[in-house]
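Page header: ASSEMBLY MODEL / two components / 391 residues total.
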Amino acid sequence: MEIFAIVISAILVNNIVLMQFLGICPFMGVSKKLSTAVGMTGAVTFVMVLATIVTYLLQTYVLEPFGIGYLQTISFILVIASFVQMVEIVLKKVSPPLSSALGVFLPLITTNCAIMGVALLTIQYEYNLVEGVIYAIGSAIGFGVAISLFAGIREHLDLMNVPKGMRGTPIALVAAGILAMAFMGFSGLV
Amino acid sequence: MNQMQNFTKGFIKENAVFVLLLGLCPTLAVTSSAVNGLGMGLATTFVLVMANIVVSLVKNLIPDKVRIPSFIVIIASFVTMVDLSMAGFLPSLHESLGIFIPLIVVNCLVLGRAEAFASKNNIGSSIIDGLGMGLGFAFALTLLGAVRELLGAGSVFGIEIPIFPTTEKGSPITMLIFVLAPGAFIVLGYLIAMINRFKKS
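Prediction written out in full:
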């Protein structure tokens, strides 16, 4: 039940993009087409789950026992950056089709604050490893839901006759605001 | 480009938030009040200036291949400094900015300036560039925070502005939606539209 609550909360109630404002850059950047949005979601899910596991282990077995919690920011970002590099290299060798599908998105992920944010929040909420992984999966799905919905909206927006000053980013932001308003309807669900 | 232009470009012409759309996560997340926006903006400015100084000093010592990871380590050290000093001196601000203080590390604005400007220019211009871009970012965050606070809570910097009708008990009837998540997107959208209009004329 606890696990179910974590998933629902991460996908709908505290949606990582629309409610917590993590990962706004890819949300605005790669949401022009539905297909790229789906590709980005794949890459984010993959890296987010693995990065959460690695940073959790780092926090519990290295930073805390040695009392060097103040190195959290530096060590997390280094782990995530090198981890993304590693995933890129391994994928290229092991699964070329997956690599070419996710390839363009992987370098962008290092500066995606959703990855680092979920890693930090897992520690902050004091989740254990299983809950942390579930939370990461839920957050990644939440990211996917938000970005796919938004990409669909933006594909339609392109065809609309928008007032001159609002074209492009401004109307996209207002649409994101209305989407966020819709997600507010889920509050109180868990 | 003279130093004056170098300093002022960050405010309107190349404003990080309104024009370049960099660093949107903290922009949207912490600007529920003007004070939070200003605090976040100044913290980012500090990191930006210090990182620019160090990057421009060590730019010739770092091999080209490992420059991005090295820049990230430099930035992360200054972010840790800001994080710890803010927790010590301004605990309430630290509390309300929360997770977004360590997340300055992944703010594309900071890494972007280190890579695009400080790694190619001398220390003097790098400081001015960092100050200009940082204060421009702080300006944008404060403006966004002020508008949201005014519409959503009827005050700016905690000072009440009586523009809303009041209830019988005297508390203003405000549009709460603007201090919540959707308001951030909508206010930023309209501010960018206004800036676009302003730039054309």
